[in-house]
Amino acid sequence: MIRRRRLRVNETIRSLVRETSLAISDFIYPIFIIEGENIKNPIDSMPGINQYSVDRLGEELQRVKRSGVKNILLFGIPIHKDEVGSEAYNPDGVTQKAIRYIKSSYPEFTVTADICLCEYTSHGHCGMIEDGEVLNDETLPLLAKAAVSCAKAGADIIAPSDMMDGHIKAIREALDENHYINTPIMAYSAKYASAYYAPFRDAAHSAPSFGDRKTYQMDYGNVKEAVREVLDDIEEGADIVMVKPALAYLDVIKTVSLKTDYPIAAYNVSGEYSMVKAAAANGWIDEKKVVMENLTAMKRAGAGIIITYHALDAAKWIKGDSYEG
Fold first, then answer.
1. What CATH number is given for 20-318 in this structure?
2. How do strand 27-34 and strand 305-308 relate by DSSP bridges?
3. DSSP 156-200
4. pLDDT tens, 276-325?
5. What totals of helices (H) and strands (E) does the chain contain, helices first?
6. pTM of the model
7. What is the reaction catalyzed (predicted)?
8. What does the domain layout of the chain look like in residue ranges?
9. Do the beta carbons of residue 38 and residue 51 sit within 8 Å?
10. So which residues are the catalytic ones?
11. Are 167 and 160 in contact (CB under 8 A)?
């Protein structure tokens, strides 16, 4: 008889032969920065997550620092919004101010800047609009300007999430022309038009005012298209590629991992987070066990980087100790 249970008899042996393990260094923690002063707004649909003004950002960064997480992803929420998302590339915009503050006060953090227009446009779409259509080519220079602006502020990684064709090439060329040749791009390469984003749109004030994003974000029935998107982004200059969302797209992560040896990020998105939080609050699941299982599944599928709102809790559970959350 083959006795495979011999390697499961206790936790010490199970951990010795475990094929996939999580590390705190795997995580990127998203933070929402809102323009204004003395603001800490709880996001009702995302328990435990808040919007912070720059002057109160230190409160959250202290929590992040205590957790051991060293990578953060910033989403800016401006007061002024217009048709062309001009605050996305304003040198004194909310995101740029936050980056400068973090790099001066918490230089140990790696700061990733999300590059998109949806939080900054009056219509909530990720590109310029003409007669109800999201314009692709006309949007590219604005995304490039936003990327350069964030790099100048001190962003360590640029993460374009807009899903415009050709955006990685436009951003890479702009970064290189402005002497940011060593600034990597983490591309939201396979970003699906997903219902799992609903809580994020509350958090980032980025819901489109009309229509939807299905003409530029991917159809959730497609996998081969995801591979094409990933390979296109790599050819255009991406250094890291991403699949978003994660849980319902583990097959996509796995497929992409078999097609490229580039680093792969998985975005454990707001809806995935909120569902776990809601079920845990009702006593239906064990939050720690479910979160760790979910995150391990993402890594097992092929993601070496996990963007997750669970990052601080997961770090605590990995360390096996506690910090003041």
1. 3.20.20.70
2. parallel
3. SEEEE-S--TTHHHHHHHHHHHTT-TT--BEEEEEEB--GGGHHH
4. 999 999 999 999 999 999 999 999 999 999 999 999 999 999 998 543 44
5. 11, 12
6. 0.95
7. 2 5-aminolevulinate = porphobilinogen + 2 H2O + H(+)
8. 20-318
9. no
10. 191, 244
11. yes
